[in-house]
Amino acid sequence: MHSGSSSPARVGAPRKTIGDIAKAAGVSKGAVSYALNGKPGVSDATRQRILTIARDLGWHPSSAARALSDGRTGVLGLIVDRPARTLGIESFFMQLISGIEATLSARDVGLLLQVTDDQEKEMAAYRHWWAQRRVDGVILVDLRRDDPRVPLLEELGMPCVVIGGPEGLGTLPGIWSDDTGAVTEVVEYLAALGHRRIARVAGLPGLYHTALRDRGVAATAERLGLPEVATVYADYTGEEGARMTRALLSRRPMPTAVIYDNDVMAVAGVAVAHEMGVDIPRELSVVAWDDSPLCQLVHPQLSAVSRDIAAYGSHAAERLLEIIDGTTSATAQDATPRLVPRGSTAPPSGQD
Fold first, then answer.
1. Is the whole model's pTM more than 0.85, yes or no?
2. Strand order in the sheet with 285-289
3. Residues in contact with 67: Cβ distance below 8 Å, sequence separation at least 6, in sequence order
4. Among candidates 203, 339, 344, 343, which has minimal Cα distance to 273?
5. Range of the domain at 269
6. What's the structural domain count of the chain?
7. pLDDT by residue for the chain (352 residues), tens digit each?
8. Torsion 20-25-28-34 (CA) sign
9. Cβ distance 114 to 87 under 8 Å?
């Protein structure tokens, strides 16, 4: 509320400077600089006194000053090229970002997050960030087949870790998990239960991990002598998951098992099955990919492919920080996702 005073409102205490520390310690600004940057030029006792005073005053180095001293911003970048409305409901990115943040906050490094609605805008943002030295490096997500972002980042020379691989990375390092091995386990499990008519509601067809899962599903079905798995593609939203499930369950004969490429689409699929009078798991088995609390809140609880997504994000952030420090640049494989069977899967009810 405006008080009517002509003097400007005080919005906060002024930021403490090296000059404030020097005055409190009774030393020169140069001595303070030596102490704060760990350089010789002051005695150990004076260094400790200056560090204590700096802490007591609440002093923190500015990102601009840090950039001038060592060329770094103390910020990493992450761009997600997905509709913003999907990020709030899809647990994968929330868990991934929480893992990235946990690692960065422990190192006093910030995260610059941007959501774009097309790939050209994403690529323009990388160019802008690097030209302006806004970030020290980036984490690249949603690797695509023949991804144009890979040669761009190679050309820019921007430190980068790709969440994805092991193929399609160019010279960029990546951290990846074995999607093919995980989806193979799911198909083998459903086949062992007796399912022969298996369908899949997959994610976006241009994404590299979608192609890996496509390949794994097809190869496993062929090896086990199963009919071709009916695969439809969706955008990870509940609306699209429901629409694709409705189409699959309207087929005759309908599938006896459906694999979903995320938890949101799987939960929407369960709702459609209930709506159409299809019993889970007696008439239809359901498997979700990635496990989340959402999978355990529906009835029956969903069998799901589980992995520690927060740890995945944390490992990517650790790898990028190592690259920036010049200590590593190798591609690494993360833990393989594993199937957690629950109440949504069972042998089919004798129909074939």
1. no
2. 230-233, 198-202, 257-260, 285-289, 303-306, 338-340
3. 73, 74, 133
4. 344
5. 179-305
6. 3
7. 444 433 333 344 566 788 888 899 999 888 888 887 777 778 888 888 988 998 888 776 655 455 545 567 899 999 998 777 677 677 888 899 999 999 998 888 999 999 988 889 999 999 999 998 899 999 999 999 899 999 999 999 999 999 998 889 999 999 999 999 999 999 999 999 999 999 999 999 999 999 999 999 999 999 999 999 999 999 999 999 999 999 999 999 999 999 999 999 999 999 999 999 999 999 999 999 999 999 999 999 999 999 999 999 999 999 999 999 888 778 889 999 999 999 999 999 865 4
8. negative
9. no
Six-digit token string for 91: 């647990």
> What DSSP character marks residue 207?
B
Residue 318 is which amino acid?
E
Q: Which two tokens stand for residue 62?
A: 């500015």
Looking up tokens 């990493």, which residue turns up? 76
User: Domain check: are 241 and 286 in the same one?
Assistant: yes
247 shares a domain with 162: no
